[in-house]
């Protein structure tokens, strides 16, 4: 298995880019979408072309939104105590339909007593949404995804998400977390970059181990508090 620790340099560049362009793109995009929708109601013909335009506009919109999430300033004073188990369970519920449709079972094992972390709850939720979606996408034929929480050194918890999917080629492992690497027809290649940025802001780490045609294990390490909620 090959391991690659995502490095932080990729992020700051991407973050700066994001801050600069995301807002500027959003307004013209909204008017393009509005007028395309209007054209659809005015014309009887060419609905197929207009549908393609609307789909592609949505795709651009998705990219812009992900970039804006990336550019969002991190404000530690708004952090609150959240239970990672609750966050992960809510993500599992959120992706339940998608998992069922893809014949994927998601299993959760809690091996750590300490699971409370000081964080921005929605951002940590976003991390697990992205990682779990990737795990489901990696198994077109279905299978199990195992999520496991274990105590880790220095008051941290290690959350592993293990799939038995297609795996990631060795030469791509080190590029993970850089923008726009995607193997999916409708992917943005931004999911992991966002995960990386969020986890880092929470003083955690994220790493990947993967073997082709055997599967991928993503490990997120986050600080935990002694408290219970
Ligand atoms: P996206 O999902 O939009 O492609 P991501 O940044 O989340 O963007 O992922 C980038 C790429 O990394 C994916 O397209 C895929 O090729 C690869 N990848 C990520 N997670 C996994 C995984 N669990 N198994 C296999 N490949 C993965």
From TrEMBL:
<protein>
    <recommendedName>
        <fullName>histidine kinase</fullName>
    </recommendedName>
</protein>
<feature type="domain" description="Histidine kinase">
    <location>
        <begin position="20"/>
        <end position="226"/>
    </location>
</feature>
